[in-house]
Every structure is written in structure tokens, then in C-alpha cells.
Amino acid sequence: MAEPLHIDRNGHRTWLKWHRARRKPSDPVFTGARILEAMRLGASVEVDLVVTADKGFAVLHDLALDHETTGTGLVAATGDAVIRQLHLRGNNGVPLADRVMLLDDLCALMEGGQVHPDALLQLDYKEDLAALDPKTVTNFARNVGPHAGNMIVSGGDLPAVLCLAEATPGLRVGYDPCYGESLARLQASLDYDAFTSEALRAAPQAAFIYLHHEIVLAADRAGYDMIAAIHADNRQVDAWTIREVTPASVAQVERLLALKVDQITTDDPEGLYAALTS
């Protein structure tokens, strides 16, 4: 089977993004081996970042260590040296041989491996602007700068994302408006055009707009094409997250492909690729 990288339909290519660096559901999240595999193949892959006590970044989703790692307490209260000694936990909670990575470690991994020119690593920042200070931003820019051409920084807190991007020349920006006040207004009004226009106005620097797939499909059922509207502003659209490959989710993805979505975030790129190409 071909590698689960993208689907080509009707002259349009849609990338399958490896959510939390998973190629298939049985994969644990954020392992260096999978991230490096994805970057060598030229995949789109996503990892999360949380600020540490030493003003670095842990490659983790949660603000606390207890669920994803063998550690306890807040990431923000834990130093880099301690975090590096922690092990990731598998999907069943059992500790793995793989240790928790810092952003420094991840970038060093890329330096030591062959990175495909098409590879795109999404750094999804999980906190807000208040968690960033000059030292944190400097650490980010120092590590990411040499790899900026293969990376994009994203998040729901736009000021924080822009702060990191502005310190790192060549780094692309992604924006997710599906949080907070804008999402609450959409849920109340169902005005998909206003929601889309607001997102584009709020983040003119954003190369990618990240949208929950159910919002895109709800807009489509209401007769509004959010993807076409964003394409008209020369941006790309990522629809997130397809958790499982089922007849229902494949039908949803088929509609997203027909709408020419640029990227689909999924926990099962391998299974989704197989279902769409069988």
C-alpha cells in the first residue's frame, strides 16, 4: 500500500494530517520515531506544545503531566531536565520506552534525519499569550528557526501564535477560530458567512484556517461553502479531527473531498487512506 499522505480527487490534493503524530490508532502519541518517519515521507504531521518551568516547550497536549506521562503535576511547574526523564504512556496508560521530548529534542531529531521538502510539521501551541515571556519566545525561535520552512505554528489564541511567528522568520501561521466567543456566536446565529469572514479578518497572516469538520459540513447542508470562501481569500483549510474510520466518517470525508478541503486531520491516516482508495 502507498504511504498515507494525501488523496487526489478531481485535480485537487487533500493531505491527511497525522494528528498527534499518529499513523494509526494503536500508535502512542508524540513518539520521535513516528514524527521522524512522517517528516522523511513528506507527510503533514501535528504535535502540541506546552510551556515548561524553564521556559522551554514540552511536546505534550495536556497542561498536566499525569495522563500522558509517568510524571505528575503541571508542565509549567516542571523543569526541562525532569521532563526529559519522563516516559510517555501508551493508549492503555502503560509507560513506554519512549521519553517525553522537548521542542529542542524534536528539532535536533529533524537535524539528524532526512526531512522531505513536502513535509509539514504543525506546532499547535496549547496555551495563551500570558504563558509566553521573552525567554520563552527566544527559545522557540532559536529551535524552530532552522526548520521554519517545514513548520507551521497554530493555536486558538491568535496573539500568542503571532508572537511566536513574528520572532521566527519564514514560519507559517495557522489559525483555529473554533473556540471561544466566535464559536459561541456561530452556535447562536448559525451565520456561517459572518463566522468565516471574521476568521479571515482576524488572521490575515494565516496560511491555514483550521475548522472543525462538523462545522464545515453543517455550513454545507445550510447551503454555504466555507472552504470556497476561504479559498477565495487565498488561504487553505484543514478540517479536524476524524477520530475513527467508520462508514459514517468516510461519508463525511468524501463530502469534504468534494468540497476540496486542503487537509484532513485524523487519528488514523493509514485506515482512512485505505478506505478512500480501496
Major sheet, described briefly? 8 strands, parallel, barrel
**Radius of gyration, CA atoms, in whole angstroms:** 18 Å
Strand content: 15-25%
- Spans with pLDDT under 50 lasting ≥5 residues? none
How does this model look, in words?
This is Glycerophosphodiester phosphodiesterase. It comes from Devosia ureilytica. The chain has an eight-stranded parallel barrel, surrounded by six helices. By secondary structure, it is α/β, with parallel strands linked by helices. The protein is 37% helix and 22% strand. α6 (180-189) packs antiparallel against α7.
Name the features:
single chain, 278 residues, alpha/beta, TIM Barrel, 8-stranded parallel beta barrel, two-stranded antiparallel sheet, 11 helices, 37% helix, 22% strand, Glycerophosphodiester phosphodiesterase, phosphoric diester hydrolase activity
Provide the fold topology.
Elements: E1 6-9, E2 12-18, H1 32-41, E3 44-51, E4 57-58, H2 80-84, E5 87-89, E6 95-99, H3 103-112, E7 120-125, H4 134-144, E8 151-154, H5 158-166, E9 172-175, H6 180-189, H7 192-202, E10 206-212, H8 213-221, H9 226-232, E11 236-242, H10 247-258, E12 263-266, H11 269-277
Parallel strand pairs: 2-3, 2-12, 3-7, 7-8, 8-9, 9-10, 10-11, 11-12
Antiparallel strand pairs: 1-2, 3-4, 5-6
